[in-house]
TrEMBL record:
It holds the Pfam family Ribosomal_S15. PROSITE patterns: RIBOSOMAL_S15. NCBIfam families: S15_bact. This is Small ribosomal subunit protein uS15. It comes from the Bacteria. GO terms for molecular function: rRNA binding; structural constituent of ribosome. Belongs to the universal ribosomal protein uS15 family. Part of the 30S ribosomal subunit. Forms a bridge to the 50S subunit in the 70S ribosome, contacting the 23S rRNA. The gene is rpsO.
Length: 91
């Protein structure tokens, strides 16, 4: 279920402020979004995998808190990020 390093590096270069930026809110939200999408696809196949469902709910909560913080700090960049990741702005 973990992201491979090539995909992770691609996300970091796309959303990060520089090549080695892995801690900014944009990168963290993008990485969590990718993990959430992968887990969602997994749960469509394995409907009774409750452990993964719990992990998915934790990831969604973590992403939601990060998005709330990022919206408060930099609203314009937040709106650009939401648009590029194609996720809802329901915060």
């Amino acid at each position: 279920m973990a992201l491979d390093s090539a995909k992770k590096q691609e996300i970091v270069t796309k959303y990060g402020r520089n090549e080695s930026d892995t801690g900014s809110s944009e990168v963290q939200i993008a990485l969590l979004t990718l993990r959430i999408a992968e887990l969602t696809e997994h749960l469509k196949i394995f409907k009774k995998d409750h452990a993964s469902r719990l992990g998915l709910l934790k990831l969604v909560g973590k992403r939601r808190r990060l998005m709330r913080y990022f919206k408060r700090v930099n609203k314009e960049a937040y709106l650009n990020l939401v648009e590029s990741l194609q996720i809802r702005d329901n915060i």
